[in-house]
Write a structure and sequence with these properties.
Layout (H helix, E strand, L loop, with lengths): L7 H28 L5 E5 L2 E8 L13 H24 L3 H24 L2 E9 L2 E2 L5 H24 L1
Antiparallel strand pairs: 1-2, 2-3, 3-4
Helix pairs in contact: 1-3, 2-3, 3-4
């Protein structure tokens, strides 16, 4: 795969993508906070609802029941991840799939950090379910992080394949 020249101009496109993800995440959360009370739900389809849920933990509400220290713990982890991602983006801005993945994770991580700092919890609202099975509610930031992680795996698989 052809690589673009590295440098600030290559990095700016990835920071722009991260910013768009951050804006979409925060905009949707402002809408949910403005129109829904905690626990409110709107039926959309037989497998999807819009809800308002507060997650004081991490993915799948990990540590949500802790005494409050997790708010700052996950905030620090998110900020450290953002710094590492910025460093990686600067060094690898020409690697398109890798940088796309990092930008998605960056935008999502910062979106959830903002929630933790402002509210003490992450606002989740996308609620999928099917025949009694119920996936924990999530948000745009979580979706971006998941897409980014999948793209990181794909990038590594492609890299390994190219070296064979």
């Amino acid at each position: 795969m052809a690589r673009k020249p590295q440098g600030s101009s290559g990095m700016l496109q990835w920071l722009g993508l991260a910013f768009i993800i951050l804006l979409a995440d925060q905009f949707t959360k402002v809408l949910i906070l403005g129109y829904y009370h905690l626990g409110d739900s709107t039926f959309i389809t037989g497998f999807f609802n819009v809800v308002r849920v507060h997650n004081s933990g991490a993915a799948f509400s990990f540590l949500a029941g802790a005494s409050g220290w997790q708010r700052w713990f996950f905030t620090v982890i998110g900020l450290l991840a953002a710094l590492v991602i910025l460093w990686l983006l600067r060094a690898h801005a020409g690697q398109r799939l890798f940088s796309f993945a990092l930008a998605c994770i960056l935008g999502g991580a910062i979106g959830n950090v903002i929630d933790r700092v402002l509210h003490g919890y992450v606002v989740d609202f996308l609620d999928f379910h099917w025949r009694g099975w119920h996936f924990p509610a999530f948000n745009v930031a979580d979706s971006a992080i998941t897409i980014g992680a999948a793209c990181l795996i794909l990038d590594e698989l492609l890299r390994v394949r190219r070296t064979r």
